[in-house]
Amino acid sequence: MKINKKLLAVIMTLVIGSAALTGCGQKTEQPSVTPTESPAVDEVTPTETPVVDENAGGVTGEEVTGETDPTPAQETYFVAVDGIEMPAGMAMDSTMFADTYGIDTSLLNSYYVQMPMMNVHATEVAVFELKDAKDADKVMAGIEKRQKALVDQWKSYLPEQLELVENYKTAQKDNMILFVISPEADQIVQKFESAQ
């Protein structure tokens, strides 16, 4: 029996084609996915404009778009860091401020804390405008609390950042207090002290 090569090629093509189509043709039932409610997550957004916290009598670092003028603390911050390259940062919100510094905001007219956006930099600059300069010790106690927490945070992470935290600077001019953790801390303090 002689088999025609063309006929054999056609039969093989049909067998392979039907096998391929059969494999692709059947649909299996997919389990249905029901979306569940995800937990609420606080979104952290970079900001440069603080908002008045009417309950505390001070100013927080939360974002406001065009509603208020810069506070004296914020203006002092921008004068002190003008021309100095700083890592990407964001203003500390009022909740984090209460947790990290523990300063009673009723002692302050305003404050502004700029912290890094990423946890590879320890750079932090804070300016506090006191209602009464006699409360400076209470603000300094809050600064010491924050600095000690940062030492604990950085001591097993990045040694060069720990060195910055350990070499922090503070300065006081009238009713303004400055707290600086930065490679350019001396320059920032100098600008703060020479600001009007």
Strand portion = 15-25%
Low-confidence stretches: 48-66
The count of strands amounts to 7
What is the CA–CA distance across the termini?
110 Å
Question: Can you give a write-up of this model?
Answer:
The chain has 196 residues and is an alpha+beta fold. The chain has one domain. It is 38% helix and 18% strand. It is rod-shaped. Residues 48-66 have low confidence and may be disordered.
Write a short abstract of this structure.
With 196 residues, the chain is an alpha+beta fold.
Question: How is this fold's topology laid out?
Answer:
Elements: H1 5-25, E1 51-53, E2 58-60, H2 72-81, E3 89-91, H3 94-100, E4 108-116, E5 124-130, H4 136-154, H5 159-166, E6 169-173, E7 176-181, H6 185-194
Antiparallel strand pairs: 1-2, 3-4, 4-5, 5-7, 6-7
Helix pairs in contact: 2-6, 4-5
Key words describing this protein structure:
196 residues; alpha+beta; five-stranded antiparallel beta sheet; two-stranded antiparallel sheet; 6 helices; rod-shaped
